[in-house]
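Researcher: We plan to redesign the surface later, but first we want a full-length starting point. Tokens attached.
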């Protein structure tokens, strides 16, 4: 197991390097530091002196990847790439264009994101699997067809409709919860309950249909017929045997998203005014703060790779036949 983890981590390093280089090229080659300065200062009536001053203040006055004027190791370290991109490998994200420490902002904002994403993930998983098992239990009946039709309908509705409709009905008409905002401690419940409910409802269609497909594939296998021949009820067969043997494909789609819960939801946090990482990214894009955007892209890639490794490890827990080598 240890050797496998080390090997997967070593495999992940070239991927992170590639993501870092691609992001650097997009932000510093396609979009030069001079362009960044003009966008921050205003395209009209900006002088070359003001551009140079902005670049010096933000550390963009150095060469991109190779400083031929420096000596020794400074040829590499005294560059924009080393100071703005390479430092991300030690989780040093530097400072945003407005002077705030990005690492500190991430550490602060990940908790509001988790307060929405984690309950939505757990509650949603229970609802989706339960609904899918019920459709499987009543397969090829009117209830099953009605459930599938409901899933297709829910899948066809935009996520924005759920957000705006939920805010209008629950907050504006019924006045049950605030329409937006956030507070710490126990007061946060009234601010996050509506985003959680909307998040679960918005994904119940696609997720439940996917789990139903997995369960229908398992229910036609030989071990299910053997269990029925032993006299086990359909409920016992579904929950004790089918659900257990369907855990590997379920884990493929579940475990990989767990690290990404830290990243938050871009739309949900923006519309509900939640000061999480999702709204932080959207605000950085709107403000054209490329330092924050680069940091969030790299962090998202790192968490996704961690999710893939956790998925492989979880296989051995669910199915003893799977061995990591």
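Model: Full-length starting sequence:
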């Amino acid at each position: 197991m240890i050797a496998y983890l080390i090997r997967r981590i070593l495999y992940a390093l070239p991927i992170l390097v590639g993501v870092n280089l691609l992001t650097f090229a997009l932000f510093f080659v396609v979009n030069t530091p001079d362009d960044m300065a003009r966008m921050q200062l205003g395209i009209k009536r900006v002088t070359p002196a003001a551009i140079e001053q902005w670049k010096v203040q933000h550390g963009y006055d150095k060469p991109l990847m190779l400083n031929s004027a420096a000596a020794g190791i400074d040829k590499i370290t005294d560059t924009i790439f080393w100071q703005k991109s390479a430092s991300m490998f030690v989780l040093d994200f530097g400072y945003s264009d407005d002077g705030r420490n990005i690492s500190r902002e991430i550490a602060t904002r990940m908790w509001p994101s988790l307060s929405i994403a984690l309950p939505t993930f757990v509650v949603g998983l229970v609802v989706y699997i339960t609904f899918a098992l019920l459709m499987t239990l009543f397969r090829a009946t009117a209830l099953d067809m009605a459930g599938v039709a409901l899933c297709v309908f829910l899948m066809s509705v935009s996520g924005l409709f759920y957000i705006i409709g939920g805010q209008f009905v629950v907050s504006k008409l019924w006045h049950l919860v605030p329409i937006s905002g956030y507070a710490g401690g126990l007061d946060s419940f009234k601010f996050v309950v509506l985003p959680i409910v909307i998040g679960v409802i918005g994904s119940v269609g696609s997720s439940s249909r996917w789990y139903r497909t997995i369960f229908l594939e398992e229910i036609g296998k030989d071990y299910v017929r053997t269990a029925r021949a032993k006299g086990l009820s359909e409920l016992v067969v579904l929950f004790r045997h089918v659900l257990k043997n369907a855990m590997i494909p379920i884990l493929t789609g579940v475990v990989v998203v767990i690290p990404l819960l830290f990243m938050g939801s871009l739309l949900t946090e923006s519309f509900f005014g939640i000061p999480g990482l999702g709204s932080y990214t959207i605000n950085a894009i709107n403000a054209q703060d490329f330092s924050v955007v680069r940091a969030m892209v790299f962090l998202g890639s790192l968490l996704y790779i961690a999710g893939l490794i956790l998925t492989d490890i979880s296989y051995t827990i669910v199915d003893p036949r799977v061995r990591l080598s």
